[in-house]
């Protein structure tokens, strides 16, 4: 087969068709990424973008002023990002599967409910962040008012002000916003499943919970893993919720917020790029780890 | 009438956000915006992007506060014209102080005592929403302003005139300790996420005895739809203990013309109009924006509209400047480290002494990269 004229022609036309996409990818993703990686090894600043010098690994570590690896704020940001990612993705996955299972059962008005569930996902993050900011406000907020009336709390809680609650409150907002997305992906997987397995299980009198864990879950696992990786990547580069709700507060700062502060507020393009480069490496490593541990092939199916 | 039209572009309220936006526009060399409103700490950071206004002023800058004109002069070029100045002031509820027979406080300790007495009394009388004091403690530039006022009132500094880090001095620790003690019982816990407008919201709806804010809040507190109209007084910020001094941080905004503007002459003309005595007077009367022209502080119409301008003239003229001159381009980094540690101390995550000594180490590392 290898040398056949037909195969070679196919490969040629495939390359021709792929070329525009590859070019666009190189321009839109490759070039900025390459620039960022290059700047990570320079002392460039925003005040004078024209002149800068190559400084090697100085932005990452140096005996003089420490560098990124000795920056306590950076490690706080790494910790915050991991906490946010693990907690939000776990909750979204569990809730998403639950909602998907409920929506998979035929009932009257299901189409409307399916559409309505997507509303939180459709609202721009900045809008929902501001909306939740007001709802969580310590003096005028709806959540505190509700909590007081129901007797759950005896005095208003300043959710966004204390570092003990701020990040968890942000996780809650993210769960509210992103669960519909998870539910939709899981629902799509559920609808592909052959119905006759369930019929067989019912006739054999197997408990529904057992059916879920022994039949449904293994079958939707490939799709679920893709959804989890998708969300995980999204969460690791989270920026907008934290920034809109608490600004540059150290106790909620993620790696992206840290990099932006260095790049924009401090005009330190070199150091900020170093943070962005490290963020990229961490995301790449974590994704590779999840793919390997989860035995996922992005082309579908389980190894 | 010049026949020219001015389009006003809305920018973020938070000064940190606004600076970030300006940096992006200016670093790209974009000429979309001709005239920019710049904070007093920015001429050193953004100056290279602005034209020298001296050829257009015909000496008008001599009528303004000289400290601000000097602040806006970089390498002999006048980068921005003063538009209005600002210094932190203390707003208080006259009616509540009278009700509890308390004098207007002159030290932070007295302020805290009065705030606690009034808050306790009013809460016992059923007003559960009343708080003693509101200020700006979100992790942003405003917290640097607030905290610098505390430490200056006690005689401390972040960075001294020689550029040495002196933020772990006993004066600074005393000041931060005093402020941290307010958090326990007389300040709404949400203040840790408040900017100017959030604190004004609480004060103007009648839910706070004292508020630290900029003078603009006066005109709004006295407007017809304000629940506290006629019940508000303004004084200089309290001293740090009996030995301390009254202070206020130098704020205020200036107008600069972008080097990338297509019409620098017309833009400079607009700047000169907006900073003229007539326009500053109008803004003082209608919006209680502090003029930067010294003569306006003796103007009867201005004093009738904003009575405290006369009394606080010295505070405005001798306001404490943020260390933006000595730290130069690194100022934002210094300020962010400062507000971060003060925020941690206010929240009680670190005791003031540890927080300030950590901060000294952090600033030392920044300094080693040069300022």
In short:
Chain A: This is Sugar ABC transporter permease. The complex is a heterodimer of chains A (303) and B (371). Chain A has 303 residues and is an all-alpha fold.
Structure characterization notes:
By secondary structure, chain A is mainly alpha-helical. Chain A has one domain (79-294): MetI-like fold. Chain A is built from twelve helices and no strands. The longest helix of chain A has 35 residues, at 5-39. Chain A is flat. The mean pLDDT of chain A is 89. Chain B is α+β, with helices and mostly antiparallel strands. Chain B has helices at residues 15-27, 43-46, 54-57, 66-71, 94-99, 108-124, 141-153, 170-185, 196-204, 216-221, 264-274, 277-287, 300-305, 308-311, 313-317, 324-327, 331-347, 352-368, and strands spanning 35-39, 73-74, 77-78, 81-87, 89-93, 131-134, 208-213, 232-235, 250-257. Chain B has a four-stranded mixed beta sheet, sandwiched between helices. Chain B has a three-stranded antiparallel beta sheet with strand order 1-9-4. In chain B, α7 (141-153) packs across α17 (331-347) and α17 packs antiparallel against α18 (352-368). The model of chain B has no long low-confidence stretch (mean pLDDT 92). Chains A and B meet through α11 of A and α1, α17 and α18 of B. Chain A: The chain crosses the membrane at residues 82-103, 115-137, 157-190, 211-233, 271-293. Chain A: Keywords: Cell membrane, Membrane, Transmembrane, Transmembrane helix, Transport. Chain A: It is a multi-pass membrane protein. Chain A: This is Sugar ABC transporter permease. Chain A: Belongs to the binding-protein-dependent transport system permease family.
